[in-house]
Amino acid sequence: MDKHNCRIGFNDAWLIAIGIPVLSFIIPIVFFSCRFNRPPFLTLGNYLATFGITAAIWLGNRYIMIYSRRRYPLFNEVRRRLIFQSTLMLVYTVITNLILGKLTEDVFRQERVNITMVDILIHSNSAAIFCTIMIIAIYESIFFIHQLKHSVEEAEQLKRESLKAELNALKTQVNPHFLFNNLNTLSSVIPENPKLAVDFVQQLSKLYRHILEVKDEQSILLKDELEVMKAYAFLLQTRFGNNLEVAIDIPDEKLDKRIVPLSLQILMENAIKHNIVSSDKPLKIELTAPDGRLVVRNNLQKKHQIFESTGIGLTNIRNRYKLIGNGQVDVDESSSDFIVSIPLIEN
Fold this sequence. Notes:
The chain has a 5-stranded mixed beta sheet, covered by helices on one side. A two-stranded antiparallel ribbon has the order 1-3. It has helices at residues 13-31, 44-71, 78-109, 117-174, 176-192, 194-213, 222-240, 263-274, 312-323, and strands spanning 220-221, 244-249, 258-259, 283-288, 293-299, 330-333, 337-343. The chain is of the alpha+beta class. The protein folds into 2 domains: 13-158, no CATH class; 175-343, Heat Shock Protein 90.
């Protein structure tokens, strides 16, 4: 891949190498009526003077574009950037043209006895502004095409990440370990408490049905996600008993907000996977909803694991929130707690 300034968006060396010589040839013909076969003639002096002015205007305006894009980098600042950038470019163009035009005015007065300084200024400033408009149009067109291509590629990547997240969530629930643990729990419950066994099967069915129903959704109601999370918590609490506590403290008015599907289940699953759950060290998972966010907190009592966590679960949640452009997932770990805060989405 060719190296280029990220603020320009493409390798413009070829554009500079072609654009400056071509404009330097066109400007004397169009704006100063220079010709090869009649006065005023297009001479090497005309061309070189125009070349110097065009190069100074082009390269100076190029730097102004880089500076403007650095100052206003965000998409919602495009209008402000274009106004700031265009104004600065036009001012620079006129001042540069006046200074360099004064130094080269004798070149354009050759064989043009009747031409005045005012005429030269009108023609030269018209040429300079034309040059600036051409530069803005060319650079901005290529820049926006590049940004559009980048945005499409990023959107496609995020969609793939979203599908991968959903697939991973589904795989997690159908993997042999999950089935083995639940079937083992069920087999031990059936003889002792048949009613609890029936409830266990119903909650397990509810969990799988939900995974299949939300596979194409970008967001779902918090109250629906909480219902399924309670089913998942029921399965885990049946397995771990009093060693696992799940506390939910979410106001009713927050239940109509939305979150990405399966996020609560993934966060609870991570808490179980990476922490000790025993009678000596019971695990407590708390859900609250302060300040427009949903906070999942668990006490930290890490298992001794041979392999470190890959962070795939949290990465999937982050990527799905990024896909819908609705806030950031925050993670905070202290010596005693692990806290994940995810945005609540307005309907």
